[in-house]
Amino acid sequence: MALTGEVSVLHERLDTIERLLEVKGILSATEIEAYEPDAKVTKYSFA
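^ that's the sequence the OP posted. Answer follows.
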């Protein structure tokens, strides 16, 4: 149950960040969805 709560909080925070980025004109939802990490990012993120 604790993990479910933590995932829920993370989901809400990520949603908030994505909305703020879009409202401030920094990134659009389309840019976020289309993002594909390069090899360097993949190496460190998924290692």
